[in-house]
Amino acid sequence: MFINVYKGTEKIDDLKSEELKSFLNKSYNALILVDNKDEFFKLLTEFAIQDSVSSINSDDTLTIVDSLIVLIFNFFYFKKEKEIHCQVKIILSKNYLIIFSKDKFFLSLCQEVIKNRKTEELGHILHLLFNHILGYYLSIIENWTDEVALIESNILQEVVERDSYLKLSNMRSDIIHLNRAIKRQAEHLKELVLMEHEYLTKSSKFYFEITYEKASELSKTLDKLNDIILNIYSLYLATLTVQQNETMKVLTSIAAIFLPISFLASFFGMNFQMPFLKYEYGYLLCAAVMVVITLGSVLYFKRKRWI
Q1: Which of 41-50, 103-112, 179-188, 275-284 is the least confident region?
Q2: Pairing with 260, which of 115, 148, 229, 246 sits 20 to 30 Å away (CA)?
């Protein structure tokens, strides 16, 4: 459990939640990271906004409450190919930006943004956070693209692993979920661009618009990747069909080669007197006919490229 308060890039140590209000009254712009629900609600109580924020029922929304900009959304990430999502709550005021999440990975992304930022404007810092999130999503999409290209190459070379189909299915499910999250974030960014509010400057809106376009491009990339996976499904099924047809062709050719031999064996195996049974070379003659028919069938099928 922690409350991290940053003044610029400087981390303020030993600052309790009840001391935040007097700290903010000194005209500082502060970034506040919270990972504990009780501490978060304690902060809201200190700022007298708990009832207003708690009244928001949606899990994914952007709204204005008591002149504060409140943003709630879901953040997705993947750990050992397992999909994990966490809820994030952000409150933007005139001189503070509160970010609440129970997830340590998301808070580590926030700390990276704080460490590398070069501005004190809170609206611009919020844009940097969104931009950093989209950068993380981009790295995931690039990894997926490489995996899809490898699977497609293996299918074309007929070197298909058994779990490839399952991997594509799981990847497509992850793509759909991530794309839904990115589209929601793009909607929030568009709302921030269009929102008229004193805490949002023209420069921060300009950067929000750039980030919105980036989110839209990522969403389109995921749509294309989803289409590619569907095409690979079709290619995979077509490859299996061709392999099955080749197997059936070989089996049919073998059956066709042995069919005349089976006929001769059945014919001379009938239980009544045959004209050639007492002939001295009847057995050799019958065997020679079988060999000639077999070799002739094999040569004919090879000439037709059936085997």
Answers
A1: 275-284
A2: 246
**Cβ(97)–Cβ(122) below 8 Å:** yes
| CATH number for the segment(s) 1-108 | 3.30.460.20
Residues in the chain: 307
148 vs 152: CA distance, rounded Å: 6
Looking at the DSSP bridge assignments, the partners of residue 90 are: 71, 99
Q: For strand 30-34 and strand 96-100, is the pairing parallel, antiparallel, or unpaired?
A: parallel
Query: Which is more confidently placed, 109 or 298?
Result: 109
Give mean pLDDT, residues 196-204: 87
- Residue at 91: amino acid letter: I
The conformational region for residue 104 under phi > 0 = left, psi -120 to 50 = alpha, else beta, is alpha
* Helix, strand, coil in percent for the chain, rounding step 5: 60, 15, 25
- The pLDDT of residue 217 is 95
* pLDDT score of 1: 44
pLDDT value of residue 115: 81
Pick the CATH number of 246-303 from 3.10.20.30, 1.20.58.340, 3.30.70.1250, 3.40.50.300: 1.20.58.340
Report the C-alpha gap between 88 and 92 in whole angstroms: 13
Q: Rounded distance, CA 71 to CA 94, Å? A: 15
